[in-house]
Design a protein that fits this description.
Layout (H helix, E strand, L loop, with lengths): L5 E3 L12 H13 L3 E4 L21 E5 L11 H5 L1 E5 L16 E2 L2 H7 L18 E5 L6 H13 L4 E7 L3 H4 L7 E5 L11 H9 L4 E4 L9 H11 L4 E3 L1 H9 L12 E3 L3 H8 L3 H6 L1 H12 L2 E4 L5 E3 L5 E3 L12 H14 L4 H22 L8 H7 L1
Helix pairs in contact: 4-12, 4-14, 6-7, 8-9, 12-13, 13-14
Bound molecules: ligand NPW and adenosine-5'-diphosphate.
The site of ligand NPW has 18 residues, from helix 4, helix 8, helix 9 and helix 12.
């Protein structure tokens, strides 16, 4: 009878380092056979914790993860080596022994509901715009006003009642009416279209009558940027979302030098920004995304959103969530700015930092999937398509 497929059950979660000897030969032979491979628990050669792929590593068509989803199957490049992943129970108790914590929770609708973040975003029948909070965004600068616009529009699409965008005054004229639902608060910029440290006082004054502050998209770098951000970081008694250039400003003076904030703080770095925050290289961040995110959030008492395919949300208390929604078409300018607005919009509605970050990355990814499906080719997707799909 001809052989039509292979089952890989060579190596499991307990192995360390690259497969050696006869294991390495068998893995190479299996891959070279061209036959579809079903991996039991995880492909041999894959690091179960990080998703790192050793040489050699089984390239599976399907992986049947036993009892629990192994973290390494959710992260690239491991996710690619695993193929389609299913979890099957084989009699192992579904509850972890005391003292053992899951490496991460996949953000399904059920997991979000359990977290208290309603993926249906139901509205109260008697709700009004005041019920759903007011976002203040400090973002944009002359070459990057689009980043601010995308973030502000995303906050509204996330369902906050009102959104105000504080922006350098020179940006105002061309933006008037761009998003009529949005309020614009020009701050003095001496006609430069850039931010300056004194503008922080104006942002803080605006924040008194608003529920959450998001800072960073398209902010640019400018003289006195450290003093500007420090004033917001220390002065904002409301939840704060920090993204893009504001993360680079945090990193510039060493993140350890920034005091802990009392109010909730969500940082949303992509791997390049995470590298700047931690002093690691981008490759080092990517090699152990779960570990790096978990360690940083716990050490600094922030909610950390480490973006990229399979975004991770790490809570200050050690919990880690993995988002599996999204589409490669989202690899286009402005999609991160859009996520910042979504998370801020959810915070304004009263979700806590972890709920807002978890639901935010989930909805952002779902919208990306829908936007991709609507285009003739997902490579043509723009961030505006994601906003329209929210
Ligand atoms: N329309 C507008 O106004 C727009 C304005 N924008 C604004 O531009 C400002 C600068 O922000 P930015 O993110 O473009 O620059 P930057 O921080 O140097 O990061 C780039 C480097 O990071 C890395 N990297 C990123 N992702 C990675 C991944 N998944 N996996 C691995 N690596 C990854 C990667 O590094 P590499 O691999 O090349 O070493 C990449 O080259 C900011 O204010 C933003 O809001 C943009 O939003 C666009 C639309
Ligand atoms: N291949 C992918 N699969 C899923 N999501 C992706 C993919 N590539 C990018 N994204 C998402 O798109 C967003 C990109 O954010 P970022 O790099 O900050 O972009 P920008 O700075 O242009 O706004 C992140 O939320 C990221 O998770």
């Amino acid at each position: 009878m001809p052989v039509t497929g292979l089952v890989d059950a060579l190596l499991g979660t307990g192995t360390t380092g690259a497969p050696r000897g006869v294991y390495a030969s068998l893995i190479r032979e299996a891959n070279a056979s061209g036959l579809p491979i079903v991996a039991a628990d995880l492909p041999s050669g894959l690091d179960a914790d990080t998703g790192a792929v050793h040489d050699p590593c089984i390239r599976a068509r399907v992986t049947v993860s036993l009892a629990f989803l192994k973290a390494g199957l959710t992260q690239y490049p491991g996710a690619r080596a695993a193929g389609d992943v299913v979890v099957r129970y084989i009699g192992i108790p579904r509850t972890l022994p005391p003292g053992m914590k899951p490496a991460g929770t996949v953000l399904t609708e059920a997991a979000l509901s359990e977290l208290g973040a309603d993926p249906g975003r139901r509205r109260e029948p008697d709700g009004h715009k005041g019920t759903y909070g007011h976002v203040l965004l400090a973002a944009g600068s002359l070459p990057m006003s689009g980043a601010g616009l995308l973030a502000a529009k995303a906050a509204l699409r996330a369902g906050c009642g009102l959104a105000t965008w504080a922006l350098p005054a020179a940006l105002l004229p061309p933006l008037l009416g761009a998003v009529p639902e949005l309020m614009l608060a020009p701050v003095a910029d001496g006609g430069s279209g850039a931010w300056n440290p004194a503008a922080a006082n104006e942002v803080l004054r605006l924040l008194e009558a608003r529920d959450v502050l998001a800072v960073g998209p398209g902010l640019g770098r400018f003289p006195g940027e450290g003093a500007y951000l420090r004033a917001l970081w220390e002065g904002a008694a409301r939840p704060l979302v920090v993204d893009a250039d504001a993360l680079n400003i945090l990193a510039a003076s060493g993140f350890a030098a920034w005091p802990r904030r009392e109010a909730a703080t969500v940082l949303t770095p992509h791997p390049g920004e995470m590298a700047r925050l931690t002093g690691l290289t981008t490759a080092e961040v990517q090699r152990d995304r779960l570990g790096v995110a978990r360690g940083f959030a716990a050490e600094h008492g922030v909610t950390l959103v480490l973006k990229g395919a399979r975004t991770i949300v790490a809570a200050p208390d050690g919990r880690v969530f993995v988002n599996v929604t999204g589409h490669p078409g989202m690899a286009t300018g402005g999609t991160g700015d859009c996520l910042t607005g979504i998370i801020a919009g959810l915070l304004a509605q009263g979700l806590d930092a972890v709920q807002a970050a978890a639901l935010g990355v989930y909805l952002h990814g779902r919208a990306g999937e829908r936007a991709a499906a609507l285009r003739a080719n997902p490579a043509s997707m723009l961030t505006g398509d994601i906003l329209d799909a929210l």
